[in-house]
Amino acid sequence: MKIALLILILILVGCQSEPPVSPTPIVEVADSPAADPTNAPLATAEPSVDPTAQPTQLPTETPEPTVTPTATPLPPRLVEPLDDGRLRYVYADERFGMTLPPNWTVVDYLVFDGQTTDEAAGELAASLLNNPLFSDLVMDGLRLYGLDTSEGALSSANPATVLLVKETFAPDFGFEELVNQTVTQLQQNPAVISGPELVEFAVAGPEELESTRIDYALETVNPTGVALTLASTQLLVWVDGQVFVLTATWSAEEAAGVEDEIEGILGSLEIGPPVVNGQ
User: Fold this and answer.
1) What is the pTM (predicted TM-score) of this model?
2) Mean pLDDT across the stretch 22-27?
C-alpha cells in the first residue's frame, strides 16, 4: 500500500506543466518638446529576453544507497570450544546456551528428531528412548540431556547427568506458583530424604528473567538393583511465560570432583539471544 501511494505521488508531480511566462508590458510615452540632440543621453540597449528559453538544469548528484549489513543466522546448534577445554553449546532457535565438560556426551532435541548424525549421541538416545518415561519427557519439552561418560564415571553406579526441559505456560500461571508447586511435589515424594531447600541463584539473561534453585537428596534403586543416595538440584528459570528447568543429579557417595563440574554447568546457563565469540 505504501509503495502504490508513493508511485501515485510521483506521477502527479511529473504531470505538472511548466509555469506560464508573463509577456513584456508595453508602455506608452507621451509627446515631449524636441530635445537638443547634442545633449541627449545615449540610449542603452535593453537585453533581449527570449520568453521561451528554459533555465539551464544543473546535474543532480545521485546519493549512494545505504547498505545495511545483515547478520548471518546461527545454526540450530553451535558448539564453541573454550580456553579451559570445556564446550559451550548454543541453541539459537531455542534461545539458550550452556557449557559442559568435554568428557560428557550430549543428546539434544536435534538428535531425538534425527537431525544430526553424531554416532555416540545417537546410540545414547536410542538407549534412553527405550524407557517409556524418558520418551514422555522428550514429548514434554526435553531440549538437552548430558551424561558424564568419562572413564571414572562409566564405572560408577550412577554417573552424573543433567537435563534441560523447556515449557510454555498459560498467561494466568506465574513463576511463584510454579516454584510452590515444585516444592510441594518434592515434599510429598517419599524418595526425598533431604530438602527441598530454596537457594537464590542468578542466571544470565534479560532483565525480566526470574530464577531460583532447589537442592535436595533422594534414595532410589538403579536398574541393576543397587540402592543409591543421589544429590540433586533443580534450576528454575522463568521468562516471558516460558520456564527452563535444568536438573542435575549425581551420586552423593561419589561427589568428589563431580560437584565442581555440576556447579560449573549450572553457572554457565544463559537464557535469551545467544552471544557467540563475544558478539
Assistant:
1) 0.68
2) 37
